Amino acid sequence: MIMKNILKFTVIIVALGLFSCNDDLNENNATSSDIKNTDLAKNYLNFFRNKSAEGSVLIQSTTSTAMQGVNKNITFAEKKLRSSNKNSSNKRIEIKGFDSNIGAKNMKNSARDDNDFFGSVLSYRVVDNSQLNKSSSESSDYNEVYIPELINVTYSTEKLVPGTTVSWNIDNLNSNGVIVSVEYYGINQLDTKLAFENPTTIKKSFVIDDSVGSYTITEADLEMFPNKALLDINVLRAGFDTDDNSNIAIAGLTKVGDTKYAER
Amino acid sequence: MKKLNFFTVLTTVLLFSVMMFTLTSKGDPDFSDPEPCDEVIGEGDSRTLRIAFNEAQYPNPFRKVGYDGYIPSPDLRWNDFPGAPMLSSLSDPFMVTNYYASVTITSPQCDEWEWKRVFDASNGSSNGEMDVKIPVDGYDVRVQIKYYERNDSSLSAPDFNIDGPSNSCGSGNSTRVLYTFDQVFLNGWGNIPQPMTMIPTSNTALTCVDVQGKYSTMQDYDSVNNFIDINDLNPK
Fold first, then answer.
1. B109 near A25, Cβ under 8 Å?
2. CB distance A106–B59 less than 8 Å?
């Protein structure tokens, strides 16, 4: 019996040790964050925390519940090195069916007025500009990545309270889940006393299966935030993929963000 | 017998731990912990962004009819700065200026690094341009801007907002509209001031808790930036 308990204890210690590696990513002095370590969350974390190579692209739609039916606010960014004295890669992503020059030529986010990227499978490949006139550049096979439908979000209440339900339009083809992210920033508070007493940024994220279609905020979810604070709540989903050989990544992200008072 | 098992297991675990320690501590410098990302980034790179509105593209759903694209002025677009943000007035710190704009910059690759600042005369210039810090080359950059509009009653075209939620300390003019910008830039942007076009997000009521002056228990800070500096809240 004692041996059984010791073995059990040993297993727990080892397991805690393994997971502490992940926790180290989230805990620090300047900010405090809590990400539920589901498999879905790990997928997102692994992708977005990876330092992808030059030539990677990010398509993003960032809007609010007030504007989601008016303007999708879609931008397109292509990763470039900042330092001009470094050797720039000639590799870039080519998306089948789109102009080969769809991205911004520089590093800034370039606005686009279409949403053809969302809710569709994009075929892409990595091409080398320096090899454009050589047949070898055409040998690269196309990869496929599904970019989820633009997300639409509704809240059951004006404020965030225990019981508030966050709902979204379901995309059954999105296997990455939906992130609900709640963030507190002292600098954005309207109550200065609350802000000065709580200067540390606090973040909490949940990743939920897209097909569930909603999430209900619990009291425990709001526990780590100062009561009656203004919180940013973002609901987002993304499709993403990385070319193994080049570490060039492609991602399509759709997000609806709002700022709401929270009360427990 | 049980005791024997206990000590056997304990000894095995200890031996295993010692072995692991020996193996991991033997390594050459390649095995040492990498420098934490916030230390790698340090103070960050200097850049300029431009806080922008697009009244035509983003008509404001919180404005009354006829004011759909209205942006009150003066504000940061016209080289107007918040005089002494937030705490300068004992009676009502939020009535002092027409807006309050904050910028927070982070990186998806480094939770530990965060730069934040309020737009004011020390970092802002005409046309809404603001000097900021971004993570160094190699890190993606998330830019979040919040632009709180003040109470509209003191402006040239008062009462242009739809009334806010019922929890306000009054009605009519006791509202403010929040504009935001929140996007990721892959590896930042170049040296050209980058326009960050904000979208209207919510009509937030002016709640009772806002309109208090300085608190007796609080150090007498001149501004939010003063608070950030004195408390060393930004990376060095």
1. no
2. no
Q: Is the Cβ of A204 closer than 8 Å to some Cβ of chain B?
A: no
Cβ atoms within 10 Å, residue B4 = 9
User: Quick one: pLDDT band at residue A19, thresholds 50, 70, 90?
Assistant: very low
Contact B116 A28 (CB under 8 A): no
Q: Which residue has the tokens 């939620």?
A: B165
Residue ranges covered by each domain of chain A: 28-261
Instruction: Give chain B positions within 8 Å (CB) of A14.
Output: none
CB pair distance less than 8 Å for B93 and A70: no
Does A154 reach chain B within 8 Å, measured CB to CB? no
Q: Which residues of A234-251 are buried (b: 16+ CB within 10 A; e: fewer)?
A: bbbbbbbbbbeebbbbbb
Domain ranges of chain B: 2-31, 38-230
In whole angstroms, give the CA distance from residue B58 to residue B197: 9
Beta strands in chain B (DSSP E): 45-52, 99-107, 110-118, 129-134, 141-149, 175-185, 194-197, 199-205
Burial of A147 (0-12, 13-18, 19+ CB in 10 A): buried
User: Chain B residue closest to A5 (CA)?
Assistant: B6
Q: Do A3 and B9 touch (CB under 8 A)?
A: yes
pTM for this entry: 0.82
Round to whole Å and give the CA distance between A29 and A149.
37
CB nearest B146 (choices: A28, A54, A188) = A188
Reply yes or no on whether the pLDDT at A261 is more than 50.
yes
How high is the ipTM of this complex? 0.84
**Distance between CA atoms of A226 and A235, rounded to whole angstroms?**
21
